[in-house]
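Exam revision sheet. Question 4 asks you to relate a sequence to its structure. Input first:
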Amino acid sequence: MSQLKRTPLYDLHLELGGKMVPFAGYDMPVQYPLGIKKEHEWTRASCGLFDVSHMGQILLHGPRPAEALETLVCADIVSLPQGMQRYAIFTAQNGGILDDLMVANPGGHLYLVVNAACKDQDIALLEMGLDDEHRIEVLDRGLLALQGPKAADVMQRHCPAACELTFMQQGEFDINGVTVWISRSGYTGEDGFEISIPAEETEALARRLLAEEEVEAIGLGARDSLRLEAGLCLYGNDIHAETTPIEAGLIWAVGKARRHGGERPGGFPGADVILHQIDSKEYQRKRIGLLGEGRAPVREGAELYSEAGQHIGVVTSGGFGPNVGKPVAMGYVDVEHAVLDTTIYAEVRGKRLPMTISKMPFVAPGYHRG
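Answer key, structure tokens:
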């Protein structure tokens, strides 16, 4: 087995009592002594600090970088204003999802944040897919996520200027003499900030933020339950190379300019499949949200059945939603069964548990839209 990589906060995680596990090739904290449920609840009520330095941070240089990136993603990047970021999807020729990512326009180049598990694949995709005029720069930086309803109160003490940002805005700021890139975004459904910082400065900033009474360190376990309550997809579970953005309920991630009738229709891998699904509404399955009864969580891989006992799909992410107070899950069912408020059944250890097809997110979003 190859050596696990470490983020700049590895020693701090150990000092804080983090329970370390392998994740996407990194040694990462799944939880701290507070425990997953309390870390989740703390983030929803106050403010959590997450180490997401394992994610890939990449700069894309060259003339008209937005047009170049649009040959690989289905988002509208050309219209992305300076100082904004946007969710994007690398698509495959079959219309499947190779990865999802965030794309920011700092001006003159693009800044991409990609999933840790797909980082090497995404770098190879960019290197092969872009022409000789464009080059990528893979960064070795820390990345911190400060998330929760009190995130802005904490940020106000460290970088008041960043509190002027609204959801999905980003910019360059100074914290304690260190130049950082901050976006108002996250993966929890709450207000918050993501802070890209030179690797060697990461620990000092993390310690300063953790010294605030509102802030607790939060591990990967609570990060997963938070994003699940927020109805956000996890790459490799809820979206992958065999699911299209349309099946995944991510039609909004296909820019209007990239669709038939738009200014730049198609031009990305799998465009014929994806645009056909948009226009014809012909596809076989659909991602749904599920609310359970009782306390027993329904996990990834549980098979789904209709009232009549017909096999109709599978759970792709599931667990107990601490703030919802009941089991929450998402999965895919045959499109004719994807009807809100319908009861279907998840098979767990030989028993079929009733679940209701529900709207996502399961909790009200706390994003600061200004």
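Marking note for examiners. The first strand starts at residue 19 and ends at 23.
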